[in-house]
Design goal:
Blueprint: E1 17-28, E2 35-46, E3 50-54, H1 61-68, E4 76-81, E5 84-85, H2 91-101, E6 102-106, H3 117-128, H4 134-143, H5 159-172, E7 177-181, H6 189-204, E8 210-213, H7 217-220, E9 225-230, E10 233-239, H8 243-253
Parallel strand pairs: 3-8, 3-9, 6-7, 7-8
Antiparallel strand pairs: 1-2, 1-4, 4-5, 9-10
Helix pairs in contact: 3-5, 5-6
Length: 260
Amino acid sequence: MSQSTTPTVSLRASNGAAARATALSKIYGAGDTRVVALDEVSVEFGRGRFTAIMGPSGSGKSTLMHCMAGLDSFSGGSAHVGDTELSGLGDRELTKLRREKIGFVFQAFNLLPTLTAIENITLPMDIAGSRPDQEWLDLVVGTLGLSGRLAHRPSQLSGGQQQRVAVARALAGRPEIIFADEPTGNLDSRSGAEVLGFLRDSVRELGQTVVMVTHDPVAASYADRVVFLADGRLIDDLPTPSPEAVLDRMRRFDGKVRTS
């Protein structure tokens, strides 16, 4: 990856951090094959906020999310989820952290076909041997409009409904933060808008914290804030984004913005 001449920007949230990175670096290889995927990134994701991460292909946006979610190791700096610093945790401790404090929503729905919607939603808690908070679970299911679909298996649900089940699964354990990686990438525009609306509602109505990687300016406009990466560095921060403002910023950074 080429070195950028753009100065590093340190982005800070104002209402407390659900997760934060300080001078976070991720380097692959050495010598001629050395690639700097993250270059001393410092950023905070505020509690009860919806943040989108954007940037050109290869900018490091998914790498940042994976490192901060404990899905990938990093080469330098620090990453915290709440008050827990990730670099000192072993595999078992990382697994426990992801199970108890982090929710995940990915482009692939990752639902088990033999389980009903409600069984898929509660599966992580069942594996952990914990009982769901029924009042919270009912609130999540109701907010996502799934009350009439809980006995259905994935094959009986539309793509948008399946992704809503995946969102409910991420919310059900009441994690400190949800990381979503291109969550609408496999959905048509109508289903994608529904899922994005539910993610936004989970922040506004349920107090959840969501961090979403996306390439789509329309998807990013559902967030409270967009942070932009290029060449592994944070280079800009856009509050209260609109699709037009996001697209304009992206065009400044990369002449080949993917908009579909």
